[in-house]
Records
---
Amino acid sequence: MEPVGQIKCKNIHVIGVPEGEEGEQEVEKIFEEIMMENFPNLGKELDIQPQEAQRIPRKRNPKRPTARHIIIKMPKFKYKKRIFKAAREKPLVTFKGEPIRLGADFSREIAEQKGLAQNIQSDKKPGSTTKNTLSSKAII
């Protein structure tokens, strides 16, 4: 297993694409449209085709009008890296004029590893002390 700081996850998390767009076209086509609208040179340069794309299930209140996020699995980590580099250089990433966000998506196992690593690092801070406390019944 790779060290936590060097995990190379190939998933991209797209936030803010309006709900109902996939009725007109598949989720993969939405991603290709985002790429051509925001990064036309990158699309021609790499010929990026997503390996898999899907909307995540609704976890929040179904009455609230928030769009479900899209998870896109890229065939190679270097494609994701290039997309994120281009997104950082561009001030605003949009889809049909609406601002969207691109982020890294980690599997549950990786997120747990990262959380565990953060807890371990916070315990090693200088000046932090741990106290052993016992309940009143344990003292008797």
---
Amino acid sequence: RLYIEGRLDYSQTQDDQGGTRYWTDIVVNEMIMLGAPGGGGGGGGGGGGAQSGSRGGGYQGGGASEPPLTEPDDDLPF
């Protein structure tokens, strides 16, 4: 199981042929590994990755962190 907190960023650019290209970027503020259902432990990934420059960046993890004490809300808009 995984807990991710972040946002979606939308942008558009013009390609070489004059067409419009649309982009959706997923920006992660926090990512925590919660472990398998029924126990199984699970450390914290912690930290978020910030993309800079070109698209397709990666996750830049931080040190270990404690998982949240409560389950995240299930009323997400997606």
---
Amino acid sequence: MKTKQLVSLALFVLICVLSINTASAQFRLGVRGGVDVASNKLNTDILKASNRLGFQIGPTAEFVVPISGFGGDISVLYGHKEYKISEKQDNASLSDYNYISVPINLKQRIKLGPLGLFVTGGVYGNVKVGDDNAKNANEVVNAFKHKNFIFGLGAGAGVTLFRNIDLGMYFRGDLTNNYKEEYMDADTFQNKKNQYWTVGLNYYF
């Protein structure tokens, strides 16, 4: 799938979000943050330093129709990607990097008294903005001038606390390969090296 088709898919999801009846929808701004983890097992070790592979943080906006609980959200996140030591040993060209991510999701909220549940799914695009191996401006330019953005699919679920806090587990899978290819490959999405799990927390004002 070429970049134009990938962008078309992203625009379709965005149109779905914007087509929500904004006259009756509740609009909220907030802050979204998350920690990427190597293992998604829900236990006391999930946020230990040895299991962390990076983070994301940034502003988010949400539209939700109160009666149905259906809506969507869009975020602009600054992220940092880290690789396992074993991965760096296997591939010397790997280095940690920073990126900007724009996820666009459809969302369904379910109220359960003082608590709530939510599920979300959509698309995201990442643009690399920094490389830990780059020593000067010329190296930064040379490292990224021929590389494209990463495009992928995401999904998540979790609980809502006190109406303002979302705590959940999120999955992301890249559809394009490591900022180098503009074509979608099913093998790329299925490769576990291109799949990420995030423990995330959103706070809405």
---
Amino acid sequence: MGNSIFRFLCGLCASASQELALHGAHPAVAALGRDVLNFQSTSQVPDGLSRHVVSSKKAQANWYNKLLAAWKKARPPPKTPEEAARFVVQTLKNHQKADVEVDAKSVADGDTVNVYVDTSDPGVCGSVPREVQKAAAERAKARAAKNYPKADALLKTIVDAGYRPVPNARGEEVLGKKYRIRLSGIDAPESSMPYGKEAKETLLKLVQGKCLKVFVYDEDRYGRCVGDIYCDGVFVQWEKQAQAGRKGLWASSNPQKPWEWRKDKRNGTA
């Protein structure tokens, strides 16, 4: 990911004026310094960075916060492309995995989460539609040629088909297949119910940016995979423990059950 940032900067400054140079620095290094210092004053990452990485704007801002802090401490700051590349990689090599996998949209509510599985996985690769494979290959070529409108159009085709470019454990962009996972054994409050928002936020905090292990047992009538989720080795579904410990909605003396709420809503009595 650090190399992606530096390659992005090198691409921007290939035709840059020598006026960008900071104290005799290479134009690529000058571009890095300019963008880091611009982030300090505007809190904005470079406009074109999203074309080269798949992470969210929030994650990109996390990177630049770290780069800014390190830049201020650098004595002296890097002046050659080699020094700048080492600076970026060393600064970001210990970033948390959550920095590159933040996606709040992956959690629909308190008991459903979307996951993306690398299509190179043996259990997935055989089911990728030919048109998706073609679109992914053409998008890679379009990005390499800096034909971003075409790349964006191809990305929409990929996403509409249930796939998406995602970072793997090494921060490399891979094609992921989307699966909707319905947590087994629990029924969280609906979004408009008491504790509905809290249920969603709690699940998001548990799984966001983490390494998940999913055990699928069935498929429900909505096409979701029903199964158990372990997050960093911890079992995510805690409804029975919450009920026994009178936590969350179970702290109420007479909690409204989600299944009863949905029934009342269907009958027009909710």
